[in-house]
Q: What sequence folds into this?
């Protein structure tokens, strides 16, 4: 049975449906990031109430703490975290690169020290499959070699070779590990290539040829200029087969998501709505604002008058500003809740526009309004 | 119209009903503490869902930030915070004593520096009435002079004289300030006296004679040995007229609340359920525990199997422990929510036992179970 259905297209933008062991996900979709097994400051039922259909957890973090075996024994991530809908786990390739200490890469895998307690660990493509399968995620990412930006061509090429080799080994390991769960887990491959067009094309082709349930674009939005991001994305999507879901990892701002959908991306995750929310930055239909700004001191409007989230239905900017000024957790909760709702509203609107066949007009209108704000 | 009705008694324990401009409160009641205009980490609707009927906010904090005039202009504390039920504001006597810098007391009032920015401020009994009336609270506390523990008899006596004088001035100011709200605000007096029996009796009589809508016992649970607390409480309640609500300020642990109800206390507030919750301490029917203890690493039970709160209905000790170990806000939320529910369940059970006329038996059973835990 196919787990991915194309419903409608509007030029390169696609409306699709991804079928998982814990329900269907309409795409383009946004996945709130729950690094340590919780979308920061949110409960699972709050996420359900604002329309989240899938969340992302990090295998690297959960392997280190509390441990994938503990989570497996508790019935997997759905039972452990109380999130009943689909779960995607990132493999840790990016986290090992960005967080771990003393990282040593060899052809077989990576040896690194935990960022929590300095303990020594080793990830191989096979080991990461064991971990993610044990976690019980619905969508499993292969373990890739992510290079920092900037990287020279030789380093990026070496990372591509490892990433392709590890993807083949992950596929093999995934297929041979006994399935401990009653539902099907899907495996996604990740392509790399930094900002080099030849590497992006070649690596994307190699990864796609292995045969996965979905394909991801990794190593973007890591500091490179945006025109290079779009070039790499475009080069990749030309190679990826259209009948598979395409996931742009770790990106981005609302206007970037609108643009990426126009290139043909189906799935997004990003820490921005939660991370910025904790700092008091909030999104509205007219742009990005900072709640601690003095202009909001006596503002009795909701964060976004057009929003239907509890933060907007029940509280004023003046109150939420006071909470942030006073360092209160409720302030963090409310801006986080609203920002996530804004991202989910965004992808809902995107899907509606693709279905209506007017994505160009819709996105032009959205971007015009969105760029009215402070930016 | 009387705002306080005695429904049933069981020896000295009382079941009563307090009628306010935002609804009725059955007593004995527990008031979650929302110092800065939010019960830490909770939304108003979560508090409603676990059965809170009244919350306490601090005039001292809200005067300093965001300012009582801003809150008045926003429609008062109910509109500003989104809490629709009764609100009690503490006057700041205790906060000026414990938090403010450079505190200078004179017969007219107190000059102090803000603990937030060092700015200079002055509280008089009249000024504090203006502030609390502007905040729109349903139950307003007079501005008292709280002495630290230990205090010698002369210092405590001086504080009693000021407290009584200020209570008379507060009463007069309260009655002369034009009422800006559509509902009636009630005024509660506070008695002091440290641990001196003569002072407690004399000050309680003086305060009671002024004529308030309710009477509070201040200056207890500030470091004194518990036997002196009970002596001072007992001396005070002998003097307070039984037809008025009696509020024991800032206390205490569950077993202390059970004991104080036995002396005839009607109202309680305490930061313990929220403050301890943030540190991972939780209460159950069998005592007090710390979630980060290794024994809970793989414990799939809820915090308290007998509890009906969302933290207990949806999450395991193992997951909540993980959240606390990882420093996640959701961990703080869940232990806070549960602890508040536990305190509200406690006063619900207390009311049921008084109504049934078996408070002695109930409290003996409760305390036996409660002391099974770690303590």
A:
């Amino acid at each position: 049975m196919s787990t991915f259905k194309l419903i409608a297209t509007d030029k390169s933008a696609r409306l699709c449906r991804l079928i998982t062991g814990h329900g269907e996900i309409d795409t383009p979709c946004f996945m709130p990031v729950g690094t340590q097994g919780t979308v920061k400051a949110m409960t699972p039922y709050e996420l359900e109430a604002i329309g989240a259909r899938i969340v992302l957890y990090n295998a690297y973090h959960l392997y280190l703490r509390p441990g994938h075996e503990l989570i497996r024994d508790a019935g997997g991530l759905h039972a452990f975290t109380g999130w009943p809908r689909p779960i995607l786990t990132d493999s840790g390739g990016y986290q090992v690169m960005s967080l771990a200490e003393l990282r040593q890469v060899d052809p077989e895998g990576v040896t690194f020290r935990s960022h929590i307690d300095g303990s020594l660990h080793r990830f191989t493509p096979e080991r990461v499959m064991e971990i993610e399968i044990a976690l019980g995620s619905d969508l499993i990412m292969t373990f890739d070699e992510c290079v920092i930006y900037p990287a020279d061509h030789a380093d990026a090429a070496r990372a591509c070779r490892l990433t392709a080799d590890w993807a083949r080994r992950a596929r093999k390991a995934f297929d041979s590990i006994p399935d401990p769960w009653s539902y099907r887990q899907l495996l996604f491959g990740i392509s790399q290539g930094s900002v080099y067009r030849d590497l992006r094309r070649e690596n994307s082709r190699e990864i796609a040829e292995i045969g996965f349930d979905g394909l991801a674009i990794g190593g973007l939005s890591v500091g490179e200029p945006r025109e290079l991001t779009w070039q790499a994305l475009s080069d990749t999507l030309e190679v990826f087969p259209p009948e598979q879901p395409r996931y742009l990892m770790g990106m981005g701002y609302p206007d970037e998501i609108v643009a990426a959908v126009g290139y043909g991306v189906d799935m997004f995750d990003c820490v921005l709505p939660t991370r910025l929310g904790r700092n008091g930055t909030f999104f509205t239909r007219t742009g990005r604002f900072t709640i601690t700004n003095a202009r909001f001191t006596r503002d009795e409007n909701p964060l976004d008058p057009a929003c239907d989230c509890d933060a907007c239905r029940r509280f004023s900017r003046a109150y939420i500003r006071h909470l942030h000024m006073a360092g209160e957790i409720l302030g963090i909760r409310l801006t986080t809740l609203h920002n996530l709702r804004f991202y989910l509203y965004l992808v809902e609107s995107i899907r509606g526009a693709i279905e209506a066949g007017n994505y160009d007009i819709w996105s032009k209108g959205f971007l015009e309004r969105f760029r009215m704000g402070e930016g």
